[in-house]
Design brief:
41% of the residues lie in helices and 2% in strands. By secondary structure, the chain is an all-alpha fold. Strands 1-2 form a two-stranded antiparallel ribbon. The chain is built from seven helices and two strands. The relative contact order is 0.09.
């Protein structure tokens, strides 16, 4: 997490285009958020507005998973921020690296108002959740598992430590 001093510098516009790199124990970048992302996650509406007015890219994506500020506002269930970002030109059809729009992120959340705000702005083909690769892979594993069970011979003659 950033210190208060870093947030003040962001507010003065010194790091508008900088990337905040949070690193894990191995030194790998965890998220690659820019200052607008950080302000969005923290819910600093006036700071978000000021950065966008000063030229911050409202549709910039995180390096790691491709979420934009609008995705982060939906994740935080911050209706005021969602409205602010949409009013400033955030793209409601921006997709993450996994192919999810901000509207997709409202599924399963208590964000009925956010969902209502995004619904008319989201292209119809981006309203339904994309097919999950995990579901497909589970089905394939089950099919493979069924075949391998039939092919495997039972081993009842295995002994462990002489027993």
């Amino acid at each position: 997490m950033l210190s208060t001093r870093a947030l003040v510098r962001v507010h003065e516009g010194l790091y508008l285009s900088g990337i905040i790199e949070e690193r894990d124990g191995d030194g790998d970048v965890m998220c690659g958020q820019n200052c607008l992302h950080l302000a969005s996650v923290c819910g600093f509406l006036s700071l978000v507005e000021k950065m966008v007015d000063l030229g911050a890219d409202i549709n910039a994506k995180e390096q790691r998973n491709g979420r934009g500020s609008l995705h982060l506002a939906v994740d935080q269930q911050n209706l005021s921020l969602v409205r602010l970002l949409l009013g400033k030109g955030a793209d409601p059809n921006l997709l993450t690296s996994g192919g999810h729009s901000p509207f997709h992120l409202t599924h399963g959340l208590d964000g009925g108002a956010i969902r209502s705000e995004l619904l008319p702005l989201t292209r119809p083909e981006l309203r339904e959740l994309p097919d999950s690769e995990e579901e497909d892979s589970d089905e394939e594993e089950e099919e493979e598992g069924d075949e391998s069970e039939e092919e495997e011979a039972p081993y009842d003659d295995i002994q462990w430590n002489g027993h």
